[in-house]
Amino acid sequence: MVKGLYTAHTGMVNEMKRLDIMANNLANADTTAYKKEGTTSRTFADEMAVRLKDSSNYGMPKKLGDITYGVHLGQVYTDYSSGSFKVTDNSTDFAIDGSGFFAVAFTDKAGNTSVKYTRDGAFTVNTEGYLVTKDGDYVLNTAGAMNQDPGEANYIKVDPNSPITVNKLGFVIQNNQIVGTLGLVDVDNYDYLEKYGENLYNLLDGGNTIASNAKIEQGVLETSNVNVINEMVSMITIQRAYEAGQKVITSIDGTLDRAVNNVGKVK
């Protein structure tokens, strides 16, 4: 095995994976409250190189030293920092000012209902008067969010013909009366959150919901925290690193060609 070929190969594969993450961030630059992802890189564990079939040391191969076989993707992480706010003046659009998530009763294609979490507050009121997401999933109140109970008793129902006012604490007010409370919760350890899809998060076993100190802003939406310029610069850097790996492979291939076909050739 030519170590340089393997090192260049692992570097190129790593850059391809990084590029996939960057491309996904750019594709979601306009997605409401999307949280960008990043990557870390690390080397493979060092291996001890030894001489093969070494009989000079009483049958014990002599050690040649530690070598590493290149780099690989270490971790894909999510940046949960807040995005900027965009004013919509829509009474059912909400943004979270601080750390926290809205809780919704998500129903999958198999008909199973569970609690998912999102920072996308682009809600609407359906024909039955329930506050729902743009995909039709019911928004939960505080009790449903804290207890992770997606039952109908924890849906937020309003009069679709009356204006809605929501204060910073999440109280839903109609006709000067509180008719519900938006379920706003936080998670004690974000390592137990995973992206589920459809701009939702799933809480893994071991994670716990806690009360959130965030405030709710009505008539605005949180934009993604993706900086398009930074992502484009990173993509150029990745492309240059990938091209460097290609040049290494081309160079080693040329060296091997000369070694095989020219070195030791009798003319």
Q: Please state the overall shape, judged from the principal axes of the Cα atoms.
A: elongated
Biggest sheet statistics: 5 strands, antiparallel
Low-confidence stretches: none
The portion of residues forming beta strands comes to: 25-35%
Query: What's the total number of strands?
Result: 21
Q: Summarize the helix and strand pattern as letters.
A: HEEEEEEEEEEEEHEEEEEEEEEH
Structural class: alpha+beta
What is the CA-based Rg, rounded? 27 Å
Overall pLDDT: 89
Instruction: Name the helicity range.
Output: 10-25%
The number of distinct helices, counting runs of at least 4 residues, comes to 3
Distance between the termini: 29 Å
Would you write up a description of this structure?
The protein has 267 residues and is α+β, with helices and mostly antiparallel strands. Helices cover 24% and strands 33% of the residues. It is built from three helices and 21 strands. α1 (3-27) runs antiparallel to α3. The protein is elongated and about 100 Å long.
